[in-house]
Amino acid sequence: MTAAAAAVAETSGLSTPPPPPGPRSKKLTPLFLLLPAALAMLVFFVIPIMTLASTSLMQGSLSTGFRQTFRWSNYGEILSEYYPQFLRSLLYASLATLMTLLIAYPLAYMIAFKAGRLRAVLLVLVIAPFFTSFLVRTIAWKQILADDGAIVHFMNNTGLMWLFDHLGLTEGRVLSTPFGVILGLTYNFLPFMVLPLYASLEKIDRSLLMASGDLYANSWTSFWKITWPLSLPGVVSGTLMTFIPAAGDYVNAELLGGPSTTMAGNVVNNQVRNFQYPASAAMSVVLMLAIVLLVAFYVKRSGTEELV
């Protein structure tokens, strides 16, 4: 500011503008902006994970107290005893994710491209199940999948029950079988697949589809060359948002399954009820590491690191 400008500002009553921030202030500004997120990660992620890992290496009981002995054999014991439930969790979650994708993609496509003015109404209907309790929704399926229910009658009349019996998914009935648990997982996590898919499909530039039509591409070619690749971010996001919570779920196996369909989440729940905290923590750590490795492998193989 020149002397003349300063004199004018002084005579007019205006204060001198503050000096521009120095180089040190510019460097500290991003750190201050990241501080809330860092604190949230520390409180809600790092500390719980460290506590869980520490508990998994403890030894003792509720009467004698738990002490840290770095007992690594907890992991060996939990895996040798409960590996069927562990593998079953990954299998059920994978099948439920596949079924969810097969149902959700046409639904999201129809809402994004064909619904018109009904788009908002259909989106509300997709998330409408969230207005009720997760537990209530799952209990309702016990009536739907009952032996005298419509689904069992349909499967018996169409021969699907015979097919699923030979695949080991049903036993002449749906309730208390692997298929019942997978159906429950599919229903409860369907909105987690529909919403990311809709978000990706809705953002697709319609002029690209019109251009493919001008170039004499049929509907299938337009879908495979344009719509499907551009919707992959939604596919990857929806797959992860469905598989991860489904693998750790235990409510569907508890209410819709039987003794032969228990999952890793049921093992954790039972161990906590019996006050076996180190064993439950060890099972949780193993399941979490397995999910992280599978997700990393899936993202790497699909070549969509930049999409998620």
From TrEMBL:
Keywords tagged on the record: Cell membrane, Membrane, Transmembrane, Transmembrane helix, Transport
Residues that span the membrane, as ranges: 31-53, 89-108, 120-140, 179-201, 279-299
Keyword Cytoplasm listed: no
Membrane topology term: Multi-pass membrane protein
GO biological process, one term: transmembrane transport
Domain ABC transmembrane type-1: 86-298
PROSITE patterns for the chain: ABC_TM1
Record's GO cellular component terms: plasma membrane
InterPro entries membership: MetI-like, MetI-like_sf
UniProt keyword annotation of Transmembrane present: yes
Domain of life: Bacteria
Subcellular location field: Cell membrane
Main location group: membrane
Family: Belongs to the binding-protein-dependent transport system permease family. CysTW subfamily.
Entry protein name: ABC transporter permease
Organism: Nakamurella antarctica
